[in-house]
Design goal:
Strand order of the largest sheet: 1-2
CATH topology of the largest domain: MetI-like fold
Helix content: over 70%
Radius of gyration: 24 Å
CATH superfamily of the largest domain: MetI-like
Number of domains: 2
Strand content: under 5%
């Protein structure tokens, strides 16, 4: 386990370095943000003076090493829009995104596990066909379209939930359903396939022959071994949650990291973009690491070695 963790730490540092470098290159070629930072009546002299003050006239390699130096000190520069450090602004938006991600995952879990088990135990029945078809449909629906439909139905027509914003629990319901539906669809199909495979194994037949009740066989013996792929999906869905948050938070005006990143891209607030992408990459890597560790806890037969 120690060798495994050391290897993972090295991989985390390497991946974050690569991601940071790629983001810097993309920001460098994205365009000049100075035009947005100055009023419309700014003279060319004002533009040149600001570019010099920001170090944008320096060669690429000079700007790159200055960026790496700041990065090692935990600094991504200042946001010209907020006139404050970029990283604190990004971290300030994280709780809202974590809240949305948490409830979205809960929606996905509460939908996928019962439906996946039900579909597996009713294989090739009308129920199985209905659940499988619904999973495909749920995966095919774009987040933005589903969010807009939910707003039209539950907020505009019947006025049950708020249209946008963050505050009470009612504000989280529609965004969580919007993001959780797509994840639930994928997890339902995966769990169904795994449960069908497990339910046909010898130890399950042995458990049934002992006279154990059906729910005991399914939930105590079969489901435990069927959760490994679900954990994989949950870990990998971290990037999906953040990616979906870019759209969902914009549709529902949810004040999280996704909305901040979209606004920063439109406004060419490159310090915010760099800090946000770095934080997202770090979260994805950490979630994948936690998934690997949880595998070991759930299934002790998994052994980590240098190979």
């Amino acid at each position: 386990m120690k060798g495994f963790l050391l290897k993972k730490v090295f991989e985390i540092v390497l991946v974050l370095f690569i991601v940071s470098s790629v983001v810097f290159v993309l920001v460098f070629i994205a365009g000049d943000p100075v035009a947005l930072m100055l009023p419309d009546g700014a003279t060319q002299q004002d533009i040149d003076a600001l570019r010099t003050a920001l170090g944008l006239n320096d060669p690429f390699i000079v700007q790159y090493f200055r960026y790496l130096s700041d990065l090692l000190q935990g600094s991504f520069g200042e946001s010209w829009r907020y006139n404050a450090g970029a990283l604190p602004i990004v971290l300030e938006r994280l709780p809202a995104t974590f809240e949305l991600a948490f409830y979205s995952l809960l929606v996905a879990i509460f939908i996928s596990i019962p439906l996946g088990i039900w579909s597996a135990t009713k294989r090739n029945s009308i129920i199985d066909i209905f659940i499988t078809g619904g999973s495909v449909l749920g995966k095919a629906m774009p987040n933005f379209w589903l969010g807009i439909m939910l707003i039209l139905f539950f907020s505009v027509t019947y006025q049950i939930f708020p249209v946008s914003g963050r505050g009470s629990f009612a504000h989280i319901v529609l965004p969580a359903i919007t993001m959780g539906t797509g994840m639930a669809s994928e997890m339902t199909r995966l769990l169904r396939s795994k449960m069908i495979e497990i339910l046909s194994q010898d130890y399950i037949r042995t458990a049934k022959s002992k006279g154990l009740k059906k729910y005991v066989v399914i939930y105590k013996h079969a489901l435990k071994n069927g959760l490994n792929p679900v954990i994989t999906i949950l870990a990998l869905q971290t990037s999906t949650v953040i990616g979906g948050a870019l759209i969902t938070e914009t549709v529902f005006a949810w004040p999280g990291l996704g909305q901040l990143l979209v606004q920063a891209v439109y406004q060419r607030d490159m310090a915010i973009v760099q800090a946000a992408v770095f934080v997202v990459a770090f979260l994805v890597i950490i979630m994948n690491l936690l998934a690997d560790i949880i595998y070991r806890v759930i299934d002790p037969t998994i052994k980590y070695s240098r190979e």
